[in-house]
Amino acid sequence: MDNTTPWAVAPEPYDSPAAAALWRAYYTEVSDRWYLLHEGRATDPAELERGIAAASGSELAPPHGQLLLARYAGEPAGTAGVRMVDAETAELTRVYVREELRGKGGAPLLVAAAEDAARALGATAIRLDTRGDLVEARALYARLGYAETAPHNDDVYAEHWFRKPLPSPAPPRAGAPRPSRTSPR
Fold first, then answer.
1. CA–CA separation, 176 vs 179, rounded Å?
2. What domains appear along the chain, each with residue ranges and CATH number?
3. Which of 81, 138, 148, 173 is most exposed, with minimal Cβ within 10 Å?
4. Environment class of residue 15 by beta-carbon count within 10 Å: exposed (0-12), middle (13-18) or buried (19+)?
5. In sequence order, what DSSP letters do the residues of 10-67 get, joined into one string?
């Protein structure tokens, strides 16, 4: 059986050129979706630049956070970030896969890797918020075991809040292969 996959997920500095390019793509997409839905237009370019610059991602740097970058066939393809919000809770953010690669299994790999990173940071639970128009994201989180909860913040764009416990992973059975974030589940 062939366990190879074109996906690989690894930690990445939040300010690397690949991370910055994917942040720009993510922010542009979610901003344009909001403006098209609510105002019938794309994001004003100057506003887009201000928004991208205002969120550097520095909170996704160790020791209190981690940005993960997915590569598909070696090319930057997506991101997911985690940051600790208290001693036991991490927040999942910046989950993004380039549009042309969606549906190929990258998002679940990124989220699983982010959950592992959150555990490594000491989290026993992970939370997130998202918007109502991001229906694909909401479906992904529900499919991956996230439960919708009461609001945990007052972000003006947040419309849905999710949480998932992060129990310690079970130790592998003797002789069982160890799971890899680069192989399909």
1. 9
2. 15-165 (3.40.630.30)
3. 173
4. middle
5. EE--TTSHHHHHHHHHHHHHHHHHHHHHHHSSPPPHHHHHHHHHH---GGGSTTTEEE
**What distance in Å separates the CA atoms of residue 27 and residue 11, rounded to the nearest whole number?**
20
Per DSSP, the residues of 56-67 read --GGGSTTTEEE
Render pLDDT for 25-70 as a digit per residue (tens, 0 to 9). 999 998 898 898 889 998 898 988 888 888 889 999 999 999 999 9
Q: Give the whole-angstrom CA distance, residue 18 versus residue 79.
A: 10
**CA separation for the pair 169, 129 (Å, rounded):** 24
- Write out the two tokens for 158: 């947040």
pTM for the whole structure: 0.86
Question: Which pair of structure tokens corresponds to residue 94?
Answer: 């910046």
